[in-house]
Amino acid sequence: MEIREALDRYRIPWNPVGIERLEVYRRFLREKNAVMDLTSVPDEETAERHFADSLMPLSYPGVIPREGRAADVGSGAGFPGLPLAAFCPGVRFFLIDAQEKRCAFLRDCASRMDLKNVEVIHARAEEAGRRVALRETFDLTVARAVAPLNVLCEYLAPLTRTGGKCVCWKGAPDTEERRDGDYAAGVLGLGAGETLAFREAEAERTLYIYRKLSATPEKYPRRNGIPSKRPLREG
C-alpha cells in the first residue's frame, strides 16, 4: 500500500515533505532489515501497520503537542518516534533504546530523513527515568508494542513532566490490563487513562492516554528489570 493511501484511509493529515521523509525511511528500513531483523512486518504492509499506526494520534486533535519535548521509550526500529518527528517539526523527539545497534540505525535513519528534531539516547528505560537531565522533563512520552500498560506507566511516568502526557499503543482493549494500568498510573502520579480505539490492518488497536498530575515518587522507576518482573498491580 502507498503511504498516502494508508494515511488517507485513517484520515491522518499529511504534507508532501512528511511523505517524502517516510519514503526515505521505508527504503532504508527495507535495506537494513535484511541484516538487522528490525521488523517482521512485510514491506508492502509497512505503510499501514507501521506508518499509519504510528501517526494515528494526529487524527485526534490535542493528543500530540505542537511544540515541546517528547521521548519515545523502547524505540526499536523507530516507531512511533520517527514518523511523528517527520510530521511534528515543532516537537523535539528523543528516541530511547537499550541496544546500541538499533541506536546506530536510528541515528543514521534520522540523518537520511533530514530530521533536525531527533536525538537518540542509548539507555534502558529504567536508566533514562533515573537520569537527572531527563527525569520529568518531557511534555510527551510514547511507547509502542513494548510491554503491558502497568509496566509502560513505570517506564514513562518518571520521564513525563507534571501536566504532560503519556501515550501507549496497544492492541484490542483488555479489561484486566486496563485495570492494572490505571492502578500503576495512580501510584506513579498519573491520572486514569483515556482510551481511543481504532481498527488498523483488520486488527483492533487502542491508544491509552495518561495525564501527569503530580511528581512521580523518587523510588520509581525501580532497578533494571524489576518493573517487568514485578509489575505494579493492586493487591
The main β sheet shows up as: 7 strands, mixed
Separation of the first and last Cα atoms: 46 Å
Number of strands: 7
As laid out across the biggest beta sheet, the strand order is: 3-2-1-4-5-7-6
Quick check: average pLDDT?
96
Radius of gyration: 17 Å
CATH evolutionary superfamily of the largest domain: Vaccinia Virus protein VP39
How many helices? The count is: 9
The domain tally reads: 2
Structural class computed from helices and strand pairing: alpha/beta
Low-confidence stretches: none
User: What is the CATH architecture annotation of the largest domain?
Assistant: 3-Layer(aba) Sandwich
Q: Class of the largest domain in CATH?
A: Alpha Beta
Briefly summarize what is shown.
By secondary structure, the protein is an alpha/beta fold. The chain has two domains: 1-122, Vaccinia Virus protein VP39 (Rossmann fold); 141-235, 3-Layer(aba) Sandwich (Rossmann fold), CATH 3.40.50.150. The chain has nine helices and seven strands, in the order H-H-H-E-H-E-H-E-H-E-H-E-H-E-E-H.
Topology:
Blueprint: H1 3-9, H2 16-36, H3 46-55, E1 68-73, H4 81-87, E2 91-97, H5 100-112, E3 118-122, H6 125-130, E4 138-144, H7 149-156, E5 160-170, H8 175-188, E6 194-200, E7 203-211, H9 226-229
Parallel strand pairs: 1-2, 1-4, 2-3, 4-5
Antiparallel strand pairs: 5-7, 6-7
Structure description:
By secondary structure, the chain is of the alpha/beta class. The chain has two domains: 1-122, 3-Layer(aba) Sandwich (Rossmann fold), CATH 3.40.50; 141-235, Vaccinia Virus protein VP39 (Rossmann fold, 3-Layer(aba) Sandwich), CATH 3.40.50.150. It is 38% helix and 22% strand. It is built from nine helices and seven strands; from the N terminus they run H-H-H-E-H-E-H-E-H-E-H-E-H-E-E-H. Strands 3-2-1-4-5-7-6 form a seven-stranded mixed sheet, with helices on both faces. 43% of the residues are buried.
